[in-house]
Amino acid sequence: MPIRRFQESFVFPMVGVLLSFVMISTIAEAQSTSKVLMIPREGKSANLDLMLSKQVGVMTELLQKAGFKVVVASVSGEHLQGVAYDLKPDLKLTEVKLDDYVGVIIPCMATGLFPGPPISPVFLSIVKQAVAKGKPVATGLGGAYILAEAGVLKGKRYAFVEDALNPVPPHQKDPRFKGAIYGGSDLVQDGNIITSGRCPNLEAMTGLPDNTPALTQAFIAELRRKK
User: Fold this and answer.
1) Are residue 63 and residue 99 in the same domain, yes or no?
2) Are both 54 and 14 inside the same structural domain?
3) Does the pLDDT of residue 216 top 60, yes or no?
4) How many angstroms separate the first and last alpha carbons of the chain?
5) Using the 8-state DSSP alphabet, how is residue 171 labeled?
């Protein structure tokens, strides 16, 4: 056999084998990437661009850098359009299969004044299931109302801003917080529930430092601990 023909007959199959290994490795890596469910609350936001960039954007970037895939789901599945920033959900909440995700993170989105618009029963059901299954659940500021309405804060410590605008913690005036324990306005973790009393919108209004990065890092640490 001529040398050139021998080389071709040897090299081409080897290239095919190597490509197969690369494809298998890529598929395996994609399948092993843990997914996090992000649920932005819909409704009129006090500052949608700020929340999309400084909250949703920061959460997504930190989670992706940590090796997690962020999947966004909302009640309507409709585009959230700001002036400079926008967010297109990947699916509707009714399409979510919770077992596909290792945790749930909820940007508060500064939707209206506390407690914000009505909360979807599907949203509440997902939160209840996630906590019951031991999946980490994290939320900033107004998201505490979602956890309270879902009934997962009873006997749990939670964070909420305490300032001139909101001098009384929600558990002292809102029946949904009955049995919940106020833990201050900073970052609070109680088991698999992580809350923060400060968000980008609050920082813009009062100057109190935003806790979004710290909240997300605590969420990531809990996700890794659960592995």
Assistant:
1) yes
2) no
3) yes
4) 55
5) G
CB 203 within 8 A of CB 209: yes
State the Cα angle at 222 between 77 and 28, rounded to 5°: 70
Instruction: Give the domain CATH number at 143.
Output: 3.40.50.880
The answer to whether 96 touches 37, Cβ cutoff 8 Å, is yes
> Domain check: are 38 and 28 in the same one?
no
Go through the chain and tell me how many residues it has. Answer: 227
The helix (H) or strand (E) run that includes residue 72 is: strand 69-74
Gap between the Cα atoms of 170 and 115, Å rounded: 9
Global pTM?
Answer: 0.84
**Between 53 and 13, the higher pLDDT residue:** 53
pLDDT at residue 85 greater than cutoff 70 = yes
Q: Find where tokens 């500052």 sit.
A: 47
Q: Which domain holds residue 47?
A: 34-226
- Do 41 and 143 meet the contact criterion of CB atoms below 8 Å apart? yes
Q: Are residues 141 and 51 in the same domain?
A: yes
pLDDT tens-place string over residues 109-127: 999 878 888 999 999 999 9
Q: How many domains does the chain contain in total?
A: 2
Q: Which of 173, 172, 181, 113 is nearest to 147 (CA)?
A: 181
- Mean pLDDT rounded to a whole number for the chain: 86
Burial 8-23 (b: 16+ CB within 10 A, else e): eeeeeeeeeeeeeeee
User: How many CB atoms neighbour CB 179 within 10 A?
Assistant: 12
> Can you list the alpha helix ranges (DSSP code H) found in the chain?
3-32, 48-51, 57-65, 121-132, 143-149, 200-206, 212-226
